[in-house]
Specification:
The protein is α+β, with helices and mostly antiparallel strands and 315 residues long. The chain contains 10 helices and 7 strands. Helix 5 packs antiparallel against helix 6, helix 5 packs across helix 10 and helix 6 packs across helix 10. The radius of gyration is 21 Å and the shape is globular. It starts with 10 loop residues before the first strand and ends in a 26-residue tail after the last helix. One of its GO terms (molecular function) is hydrolase activity. Keywords: Hydrolase.
Length: 315
């Protein structure tokens, strides 16, 4: 049964992937699951299972494929699935978890090669050494790590795909503005979100189960600043180069309320922020529009400032 076709009041029986799961405590003290579930078409629905037993908390975690019996209800104008029964799939079900895991549309090795070739072309030795060291240390993890738990590029390999897409945008824009130092801009793009690897806990399916203690207390920006300092010092890098790279990481969210204590103060840092926003918003728009029919509107999307998008009906 496809998520896209379900209606309020309908019974549901089918296979779903637990994209995210949080166990919470109800006002009566009982435990319940708050889940995001997706089908093999990657359409999603919120799910709840009440009165969860302790052993179920160990079994039904992020990244598991399950067979669910439940009922579709409506809450706050959104459909949700109330789970009555749930079990892990077994061999007799003849379904593959790989069909339920959304992955990036570009080959992993192709993206890694593109980024490594970019680093190899750097002319500034310090920028090249810092970027190469940090990026190469995370190559294996980047093959599956998502860029977020719930928002943009929250899929297997999403962080690498986000870097790759941003780098392509950056190379297009850098040619327009002669004042841009390409090494600095491209290094900022490659490094800007790589601290997320230490911010979140992800399995090899790209499903994030939680944030690390460091992620909750410090965040990926702070963690990446610390890593830059340690790597830069160990390589004996030019202090000015190191300072400018740190500023790009520090300012790429632009606003203090979004985690950046400084706004961009030179052109490469300014471009980094806008390239990041372009790629994140275009990805979010594409995902939302793919879920509606031509000539119709999406639901209000809070990642896009609460707007509803219109999907055109012509090519």
């Amino acid at each position: 049964m496809k998520i896209k076709s379900v209606q309020k009041g309908q019974n549901y029986l089918g296979f779903l992937f637990i994209k995210s799961q949080m166990t919470k405590t109800a006002t009566n003290g009982s435990r319940y699951f708050n889940m995001v579930l997706n089908d093999a078409n990657f359409d999603e629905i919120d799910g709840k299972k009440w009165d969860v037993k302790p052993e179920e908390e160990e079994i039904f975690t992020n990244g598991k494929l399950v067979k669910i019996k439940g009922k579709v209800q409506e809450f706050n104008n959104r459909l949700q699935l109330i789970v009555e029964k749930m079990r892990l799939v077994d061999e007799s079900d003849e379904v593959s978890i790989n069909d339920f895991i959304e992955t990036v549309p570009v080959d992993i090795d192709e993206m890694l090669g593109y980024i490594n070739d970019t680093i190899d072309d750097f002319t500034n030795a310090d920028i090249a050494a810092i970027t190469s060291k940090i990026f190469s240390d995370q190559t294996e993890i980047l093959s599956y790590f998502p860029a977020a738990k719930k928002h943009h590029h929250a899929i297997k390999g999403g962080l690498l795909y986000h870097i790759y897409s941003m780098l392509r945008i950056g190379k297009s824009l850098a040619g327009i503005y002669p004042l841009i130092n390409r090494d600095l801009l491209y290094a900022g793009i490659i490094l800007h979100d790589i601290g997320k690897i230490n911010e979140m806990v992800s399995d090899e399916n790209g499903s994030v189960s939680d944030y690390t203690p460091e992620g909750k207390l410090l965040g990926h920006i702070t963690q990446e600043i610390v890593e830059l300092e340690l790597v830069g010092q160990s390589l004996g890098a030019d202090p000015e180069v190191l300072m400018m790279l740190k500023h790009m990481i520090l300012s790429h969210h632009y606003q203090p309320e979004f985690g950046s204590p400084k706004r961009p103060m030179f052109p490469e840092a300014e471009l980094l922020h806008h390239i990041d926003m372009i790629d994140a918003r275009m990805y979010t728009m594409e995902q939302a529009l793919n879920r509606v029919e031509p000539g119709s509107f999406t639901e209000a999307n809070w990642s896009l400032d609460g707007i509803s998008l219109y999907r055109r009906s012509f090519l």
